[in-house]
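Hi, here's the filled form for the chain we discussed.

Project: internal
Contact: R.S.
Residues: 353
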Amino acid sequence: MEAASSVGLMAGFFSYLSLFFLRPIACRVHLLDTPDHRKLHKGSVPLIGGLSAFIGVSVAWMIGMPLISGHGLFLICAALLVIVGAVDDARDLPAKFRLGVQVLLGAVLTFGSGTSLVTFGDLLGFGPIELGILGPLVTIAAVIGATNAFNMVDGIDGLAGSLSLVALGSLALLFSTSSGLVAELALAVGISCALVPYLMANLRIPPFRNRIFMGDAGSMFIGFAVVWLLVNATQPGEMAMRPVTALWIIAIPLMDMVAIMVRRARKGQSVMKPDRDHLHHIFMRAGFSDREALLMITIVAMLFASVGLLGEFFHLPEWLMFAAFVGLFALYDWSLSHVWRLLVVVRKKVSHQ
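And the returned structure, exactly as it came back:
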């Protein structure tokens, strides 16, 4: 725990410092988010939140933790992903190129570290589902999925950062119960602390007065980091949790991504096509402010994560936790198409009180 605290404090400090020298660089290289038909903010906003978090974690890790491990390889792969994300933020790279980079880096991390998913656990109640030789391929797919899930949810101020803190905080709590996962605990705490300066600037909490955004570099880094920690947490050996618990920890980003892709496929559209049908967009269309939407979505994410943690701590059957999650997703998918009308009614009642 002492190592995690040390890494966390240093990560937060270096992340805070990096914001000041990254801002002028962002303006110089046009690493800025400008308004368009989908982005309704005012003025050009620097896309340096993710970069600052990565710099904070990397510097803290090199000072406080060893690099000769799977985590060292993780930081190298994450650095390459952040660079590609930053270039995409500045120049808009093709989606297929970004996907190819994610596949490549996922493969390098999976095969290079020797860590991959080997089981889904007893999801169906008939015994553990072993992945065998498919384990590395499933792991690469999981890396791509989580990376894009956090990228897609980055739509209003503070949302990607807040959902990241929910997931990382849950993981840190689980890692703290195992003496063999010190490095994983340090990484989870380090990234969490590195995100705090970004979140304060993004939400313009004093002393920050000028807003910044996370950018694709940041959201992809967070997704990449969270799935790496989930893989390390859910496999036999020093097992911090069962695989089904991971679904609850990242429930909102995961369900939002899958539901959106399913709806796009039904319409015959590309599953990667940008739109304004995400959960936070629905709250906004219903008349809620971005802060109100942020607060409600974050609370729901915390409730879902709490269900997963309670199921883990009380050892509820994995098949029961999985069935509950599938039922929740079905309700979520239906709600995104219908419940916004109910939200309008709720919003009107709140306004009249």
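Let me know if anything looks off before we file it.
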